[in-house]
Amino acid sequence: MRKILVIEDEPEMRRNLTTILRLENLQPLAAENGRLGVELAKKEKPDLILCDVKMPELDGYGVIAALRAHSRTAAIPFIFLTAKGKKSDIRTGMNLGADDYLIKPVSKADLMASIRFHLERALQQTMPEFEPISHADRPWKEMLGLPTLFPSLCYCHGTPCSVRTRSHCR
Predict the structure, then answer these.
(1) Rounded mean pLDDT of the chain?
(2) Cα 89 from Cα 110, distance rounded (Å)
(3) DSSP assignment, residue 16?
(4) Which of 12, 18, 80, 129 lies 20 to 30 A from 111 at CA?
(5) Under the phi-then-psi rule, with left for phi > 0, alpha for psi from -120 to 50, and beta for the rest, what region is 97?
(6) Measured between alpha carbons, how far is 156 from 61 in angstroms, rounded to an integer?
(7) How far is CA 1 from CA 37, 46, 78, 119, 148, in A?
(8) Which of 84, 83, 99 is nearest to 48 (CA)?
Protein backbone atom coordinates (compact mmCIF):
# COMPACT_ATOMS: atom_id res chain seq x y z
CA MET A 1 0.00 0.00 0.00
CA ARG A 2 1.35 3.42 -1.00
CA LYS A 3 2.15 5.78 1.90
CA ILE A 4 1.05 9.41 1.65
CA LEU A 5 2.26 11.90 4.24
CA VAL A 6 -0.19 14.72 4.98
CA ILE A 7 1.43 17.75 6.64
CA GLU A 8 -1.46 19.99 7.68
CA ASP A 9 -1.96 22.09 10.83
CA GLU A 10 -5.78 22.31 10.63
CA PRO A 11 -7.14 19.18 12.41
CA GLU A 12 -10.37 18.96 10.40
CA MET A 13 -8.59 19.30 7.05
CA ARG A 14 -5.95 16.76 8.11
CA ARG A 15 -8.69 14.32 9.17
CA ASN A 16 -10.63 14.80 5.90
CA LEU A 17 -7.52 14.25 3.78
CA THR A 18 -6.49 11.09 5.66
CA THR A 19 -10.04 9.74 5.35
CA ILE A 20 -10.09 10.34 1.59
CA LEU A 21 -6.71 8.64 1.22
CA ARG A 22 -7.80 5.66 3.28
CA LEU A 23 -10.96 5.27 1.16
CA GLU A 24 -8.74 5.32 -1.94
CA ASN A 25 -6.72 2.37 -0.56
CA LEU A 26 -3.71 4.49 0.32
CA GLN A 27 -1.94 4.51 3.68
CA PRO A 28 -2.07 8.02 5.16
CA LEU A 29 0.49 9.34 7.61
CA ALA A 30 -0.20 12.66 9.31
CA ALA A 31 1.82 15.46 10.86
CA GLU A 32 0.37 18.58 12.49
CA ASN A 33 3.23 20.93 11.63
CA GLY A 34 6.21 21.24 9.30
CA ARG A 35 8.86 20.21 11.80
CA LEU A 36 7.04 16.97 12.63
CA GLY A 37 6.40 16.42 8.93
CA VAL A 38 10.09 16.57 8.08
CA GLU A 39 10.91 14.13 10.90
CA LEU A 40 8.17 11.72 9.79
CA ALA A 41 9.22 11.93 6.15
CA LYS A 42 12.81 11.03 7.02
CA LYS A 43 11.66 8.17 9.25
CA GLU A 44 8.90 6.67 7.06
CA LYS A 45 10.00 7.70 3.54
CA PRO A 46 6.47 8.08 2.15
CA ASP A 47 5.66 7.61 -1.53
CA LEU A 48 4.21 11.14 -1.76
CA ILE A 49 3.81 14.22 0.46
CA LEU A 50 0.82 16.59 0.64
CA CYS A 51 1.78 19.77 2.48
CA ASP A 52 0.15 23.03 3.52
CA VAL A 53 2.20 26.24 3.25
CA LYS A 54 1.11 28.28 6.28
CA MET A 55 1.91 26.24 9.41
CA PRO A 56 3.48 26.80 12.81
CA GLU A 57 7.09 25.91 13.63
CA LEU A 58 8.12 25.33 9.99
CA ASP A 59 6.11 26.48 6.99
CA GLY A 60 5.65 24.45 3.82
CA TYR A 61 8.46 26.25 2.02
CA GLY A 62 10.82 25.29 4.85
CA VAL A 63 9.54 21.71 4.70
CA ILE A 64 10.27 21.27 1.00
CA ALA A 65 13.67 22.96 1.33
CA ALA A 66 14.61 20.58 4.17
CA LEU A 67 13.37 17.49 2.32
CA ARG A 68 15.02 18.38 -1.00
CA ALA A 69 18.33 18.88 0.85
CA HIS A 70 18.24 15.36 2.36
CA SER A 71 19.23 12.48 0.07
CA ARG A 72 16.67 10.06 1.55
CA THR A 73 13.73 12.40 0.85
CA ALA A 74 14.88 14.53 -2.09
CA ALA A 75 13.05 12.55 -4.78
CA ILE A 76 9.72 12.06 -2.97
CA PRO A 77 6.89 13.66 -4.99
CA PHE A 78 5.73 16.78 -3.16
CA ILE A 79 2.37 18.52 -3.62
CA PHE A 80 1.48 21.77 -1.95
CA LEU A 81 -2.18 21.92 -0.89
CA THR A 82 -2.84 25.42 0.40
CA ALA A 83 -5.12 28.44 0.45
CA LYS A 84 -2.21 30.63 -0.73
CA GLY A 85 -3.12 31.01 -4.38
CA LYS A 86 -1.37 34.14 -5.63
CA LYS A 87 0.88 33.66 -8.65
CA SER A 88 3.92 34.63 -6.57
CA ASP A 89 3.05 31.93 -3.97
CA ILE A 90 2.67 29.27 -6.66
CA ARG A 91 5.93 30.34 -8.34
CA THR A 92 7.78 30.20 -5.00
CA GLY A 93 6.51 26.67 -4.33
CA MET A 94 7.36 25.41 -7.79
CA ASN A 95 10.79 27.05 -7.72
CA LEU A 96 11.53 25.20 -4.48
CA GLY A 97 10.87 21.91 -6.24
CA ALA A 98 7.20 21.13 -5.69
CA ASP A 99 5.72 18.69 -8.18
CA ASP A 100 2.28 20.29 -8.01
CA TYR A 101 0.51 23.17 -6.29
CA LEU A 102 -3.19 22.74 -5.48
CA ILE A 103 -5.29 25.58 -4.09
CA LYS A 104 -7.88 24.98 -1.37
CA PRO A 105 -10.68 24.23 -1.64
CA VAL A 106 -9.80 21.40 -4.01
CA SER A 107 -12.17 18.74 -5.29
CA LYS A 108 -11.56 15.12 -4.40
CA ALA A 109 -11.28 14.33 -8.12
CA ASP A 110 -8.55 16.95 -8.69
CA LEU A 111 -6.69 15.88 -5.55
CA MET A 112 -6.73 12.20 -6.47
CA ALA A 113 -5.82 12.91 -10.11
CA SER A 114 -2.73 14.79 -8.96
CA ILE A 115 -1.78 12.10 -6.43
CA ARG A 116 -2.22 9.27 -8.94
CA PHE A 117 -0.27 11.12 -11.62
CA HIS A 118 2.69 11.84 -9.37
CA LEU A 119 2.74 8.34 -7.88
CA GLU A 120 2.76 6.85 -11.39
CA ARG A 121 5.45 9.24 -12.60
CA ALA A 122 7.63 8.42 -9.59
CA LEU A 123 7.21 4.71 -10.29
CA GLN A 124 8.16 5.19 -13.95
CA GLN A 125 11.27 7.12 -12.97
CA THR A 126 12.51 4.20 -10.88
CA MET A 127 12.24 1.71 -13.77
CA PRO A 128 15.21 1.29 -16.08
CA GLU A 129 14.55 2.40 -19.65
CA PHE A 130 16.11 -0.78 -20.95
CA GLU A 131 17.97 -3.73 -19.63
CA PRO A 132 21.25 -4.37 -21.40
CA ILE A 133 21.67 -7.91 -22.60
CA SER A 134 25.11 -9.39 -22.56
CA HIS A 135 26.24 -10.91 -25.84
CA ALA A 136 29.75 -11.78 -24.71
CA ASP A 137 29.34 -15.32 -26.04
CA ARG A 138 28.39 -14.13 -29.56
CA PRO A 139 30.97 -12.81 -32.00
CA TRP A 140 30.63 -9.11 -32.72
CA LYS A 141 30.27 -9.78 -36.46
CA GLU A 142 27.20 -11.92 -35.81
CA MET A 143 25.66 -9.37 -33.43
CA LEU A 144 26.04 -6.67 -36.07
CA GLY A 145 24.89 -8.98 -38.86
CA LEU A 146 27.96 -8.20 -40.95
CA PRO A 147 28.24 -11.56 -42.74
CA THR A 148 24.56 -11.31 -43.69
CA LEU A 149 24.32 -7.61 -44.46
CA PHE A 150 27.76 -7.16 -46.03
CA PRO A 151 29.02 -10.57 -47.09
CA SER A 152 31.82 -9.13 -49.20
CA LEU A 153 33.18 -7.46 -46.05
CA CYS A 154 33.30 -10.71 -44.11
CA TYR A 155 36.43 -11.35 -42.08
CA CYS A 156 37.51 -14.86 -41.26
CA HIS A 157 40.09 -15.33 -38.56
CA GLY A 158 41.06 -11.64 -38.73
CA THR A 159 41.69 -11.46 -42.50
CA PRO A 160 39.35 -10.35 -45.32
CA CYS A 161 37.39 -13.11 -47.05
CA SER A 162 35.67 -13.07 -50.42
CA VAL A 163 33.26 -15.92 -49.60
CA ARG A 164 29.70 -14.63 -49.59
CA THR A 165 27.96 -17.12 -47.29
CA ARG A 166 27.27 -16.65 -43.62
CA SER A 167 27.97 -20.27 -42.75
CA HIS A 168 31.54 -19.92 -43.96
CA CYS A 169 32.29 -17.20 -41.43
CA ARG A 170 31.35 -19.11 -38.32
Answers:
(1) 85
(2) 20
(3) H
(4) 129
(5) left
(6) 66
(7) 20, 11, 18, 12, 51
(8) 99
Alpha carbons 84 and 100: distance in angstroms, whole number: 13
**Alpha helix locations (H) across 55-107?**
60-68, 87-95
Instruction: Give the domains, in start order, of the chain with CATH numbers.
Output: 3-126 (3.40.50.2300), 140-169 (no CATH)
> Which tens digits make up the pLDDT trace of 85-129?
999 999 999 999 999 999 999 999 999 999 999 999 999 888 776
Q: What single-letter amino acid sits at 155?
A: Y
| pTM, 2 dp | 0.75
pLDDT digits (tens, 9 = 90+) for 45-83: 999 999 999 999 999 999 999 999 999 999 999 999 999
* Strands in 32-153 per DSSP E: 48-51, 78-82, 100-103
Cβ atoms of 47 and 3 closer than 8 Å: yes
